[in-house]
Amino acid sequence: MTQSSLTPVPDPPAEPSPVVVDLYRMAVEMADRVSARRGTANAFFLSVQTAFLGAMGITASEGSRVPWWVALVLALAGVLVSMTWWLQLRSYRALNKAKFEIINSVEPLLPVQVFSREWDVLTRGVGPWWTRYAELGATERKVPWVFAVLHAGLFIGTLCS
Description:
mainly alpha; transmembrane
């Protein structure tokens, strides 16, 4: 990071209140914890979905004919897990958005606005598209729907075989 990226705000307070600094630290730590919990939840749901699809695929490939209602129950359960995952991601996004609104509202009271400047640098949009910042959440929220489509596809494949 260059020196210009850490440009202090004009006329910052002489010294921020220790209470404000502590609250800021706590808000940043809590935002980090929410992100870590989201990552753990993603790993859990990815493992469950992979195991689920693997079991369905192995059952279907063994040559044994699975009754349509069993395939339907498994597909609906998989889609339900996908929807739960997506809803949880949406909740984590809303929670972090609220936390960063608070962090950004406290930053003007500090000598350097680290998160605001970082966001400005990331979203500048300079250079070819593949070098620009791509928000992880946009991709992350599509993954549960990919799994839902895979569950539906496996169900249709079971019916057609």
